[in-house]
Amino acid sequence: MKCQEIRELMPDLAAGLGAATAETEQHLRACAECTGTLQELRQTMALLDEWQAPEPSPYFDVRLGARLREEAAKQQRKKHDHDWAADELAECELPTKQQGHDHPKFDDQVR
Fold first, then answer.
1. Contacts of 31 (CB under 8 A, 6+ apart)
2. Are 27 and 64 in a shared domain?
3. Does residue 8 sit in the same domain as residue 43?
């Protein structure tokens, strides 16, 4: 068995989810690198099993709710500002030659 094949099996071996085959055991006895990697992975998993997530602050839910409301209000203001600007722009009439506006400055810009 090759090292790459063993590496693919290591998470399951380290977690005890599968029994090592005779071929896997033989490779681990012969390959110090794979054996060391498997041992390190087992140690890491053992530490993760011991770790406990800290309890959130009693005010976490209150602060989270306030932050969500702030973000929702900010998004609403952005939408309102965008809608207002679009409405204002839609109401503007730009002079065009088709409307019969003859303005030297406008004619220079069009050319």
1. 3, 6
2. no
3. yes
